[in-house]
Structures are given as C-alpha cells and as structure tokens.
Amino acid sequence: MPYSTTWTGAVLERLYALFVQRIPLNTLARRAGTARGTLRTLKANFLCVLPKLRLPRREGAFGPAAFLEVLAGMEPAAVADLFRDWKEREPKHSIVGIYLRC
C-alpha cells in the first residue's frame, strides 16, 4: 500500500462512509465510482484486521465506527505515519487488505 495521504484518505473516506455515515454499499459504490466488490472486500478486510490494530496512547480495540472517528480527528499526515508504523510492526496486516492474512 502506498502510504501517501491521498491514498490513505481515499480508503478512510470510503470506510467512514460505510461505518460511520452508514451509507449503503451500493449507494457508495455508485457515488464513488468504485466497484461494489472492491468496497465489499475493503469492508470485510477492515473488519478482519481491526481487532489487531491499536491506536497510540489508547488501550484496547475499538469498534469500526469509534476507530474511524478517532482517525478522522487526526491530521492526514499523522494517519499516514500511523499506517506506515503498523505495516513495519506487523507486515502481515494491512487495513486495505493488500497484505491481509486473516
């Protein structure tokens, strides 16, 4: 996964729409110009990886909406750095699912 703020932001934007705003998958796919299968895979991979991810200075795992709310409050560069750190610590897991081994 390229850890640029643009790519990370695009992934988080779609996850935020699915879990926090509760936009139906078909509607989001149409609005974002993304295949439904891509969003379905992204959602499934996110739910699989989420219990393994920990946010700095916070204990325990978060639910999908709470996790995304915390990330939404962070600066984009900080989120990209956080993703990079996760990838360096645990190369088998990726929020996007490219390297996912659940």
Structure, briefly:
With 102 residues, the protein is mostly helical.
Explained architecture:
This protein is mostly helical. The protein has one domain. Helices cover 59% and strands 0% of the residues. It contains five helices and no strands. The C terminus is likely disordered.
Order of helices and strands: HHHHH
Overall form: globular
Whole-angstrom Rg: 13 Å
**Regions with little confidence, pLDDT below 50 for 5+ residues:** 96-102
**Can you summarize the main beta sheet?**
none
Rounded to the nearest angstrom, the distance between the terminal CA atoms is: 17 Å
The tally of helices reads 5
Mean pLDDT: 79
Give the fraction of residues assigned to helices: 55-70%
Care to count the β-strands? 0
Compile the SSE list and pairings.
Layout: H1 5-19, H2 25-32, H3 36-49, H4 64-72, H5 76-89
Helix pairs in contact: 1-3, 1-4, 1-5
